[in-house]
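Tokens in:
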């Protein structure tokens, strides 16, 4: 075997070991797609109910762990629990600061379109440096500095 083949095999072996962990290392975020979703203490419908989340809040939830058809998730306030995977989809970020300027371009030199407040949610459609191109629930679009959001940005 030549040196190039050995390097290729080592690279492939390394990737096979790393890839299963890559998604959790970079973070996966979901949001509730049903009207309401129960957050439980353990995976399974017979597990104790911790609280119920409302879809209209549209908050992102960080996936911490998987168990079959269940996801262990954490919200931006640090609360965690288990949710059935079919109740979620991949999306979202939420404003975590008191306010955030939504601009018409990725930078402070761009015009402020409106000001979003803590708790407002967005879907991230593009990333450019430290800025995120977002869309809100009524299809308004703009750019927000990523440190003002929690969710798909981390």
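Residues out:
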């Amino acid at each position: 075997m030549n040196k190039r083949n050995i390097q290729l095999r080592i690279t492939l072996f390394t990737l096979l070991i790393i890839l299963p962990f890559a998604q959790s290392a970079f973070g996966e975020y979901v949001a509730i797609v049903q009207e309401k979703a129960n957050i439980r203490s353990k995976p399974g419908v017979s597990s104790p109910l911790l609280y119920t989340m409302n879809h209209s809040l549209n908050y992102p939830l960080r996936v911490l762990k998987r168990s079959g058809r269940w996801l262990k998730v954490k919200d931006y306030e640090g609360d965690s629990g288990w949710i059935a995977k079919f109740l979620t989809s991949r999306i979202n970020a939420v404003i975590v600061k008191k306010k955030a300027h939504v601009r018409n371009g990725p930078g402070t030199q761009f015009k402020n379109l409106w000001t979003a407040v803590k708790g407002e949610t967005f879907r991230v459609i593009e990333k450019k440096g430290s800025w995120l191109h977002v869309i809100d629930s009524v299809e308004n679009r703009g750019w927000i500095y990523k440190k003002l959001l929690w969710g798909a940005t981390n």
